[in-house]
Write a structure and sequence with these properties.
Blueprint (H helix, E strand, L loop, with lengths): L12 E6 L10 H10 L4 E5 L10 H11 L2 E6 L14 H16 L5 E4 L11 H21 L2 E5 L9 H9 L6 E6 H6 L4 H8 L3 E6 L35 H10 L4 E5 L9 H14 L5 H4 L3
Parallel strand pairs: 1-2, 1-8, 2-3, 4-5, 5-6, 6-7, 7-8
Length: 300
Amino acid sequence: MPAAALASTTPSYRVGITTNTRGGWEDDVFLSFREAREAGYCNVESFFHYFVKFADRPEELQSRMDDLGVRFVTISNGGPMDMGFEDPSRHKQVLEDHVQLARFIRGLGCTHLKINLGGRRPEGTSQEELRHMTTALAELGRRCTEEGVKLAIHAHMWSKFENRSEIDFVLNNTDPKDVWFVLDTGHITMAGIDPVELTRTLRNRIVEFHLKDTAPKHRGGAASRMEKPDPMVAPVFFPLGKEGVDFQAIVQTLDRMNWKGWLTVELDSSPTRPPKESARISKQYLDNALSLKPESFCSA
């Protein structure tokens, strides 16, 4: 079904799924989109490296999406892009690359650019690096705003932008109209932060949630930092319903403030079942536990 034929109503919550799931979806992005559609998701999110060959022919990519009956939530940054936000000598290239990506996804109907900030060094992110990152993000956010796209930064375990002090520093030192936030319930929990409290604190500065669950023992924020495991051997993120994240409390908070935005299901790996089955488990949870309306999954 072409994207244009999807229902025209836009609910408060628009549900998508990130499909670069290890265990079956990581090597064929269009297979992942097709199977996500079969599992009940019309909105999909992925990474730029899958679409480099479409950079100068977005109409061809849009045609593929229409044939599959899906549309993009957003396309994230990543290789082959320069992501050295912490290095002033690389800022010119970093900014150019990301503004080009913002233009590319705007042409595909996306309204925000979700970005990661590169791998974390063993010693962590220094205050100097954090200041340089913030300077670059402030400028990129301003340029994205000019392009009609919201810049939304994603706090991610094992990245340069991981913990509460780093989140607070960047958001307190950038303009809220230019720099927004993606709240990943799994990564936030494993960083020792309560995602419910962070939702209440950041409120409408959040443009998207990445929804993944954690083990119940981590509910409210993991007690200690975990080194990065092999997600195919010892996963720390699970389909929704594991009870490590209080999704009902998050949605109640969003309802009270009349929040509108993206709820994007995500699972980094699916080692014990095909990704399509994990996607179905999460959709069933959203249907039954959170009572999300069908139009949340398939609205234009």
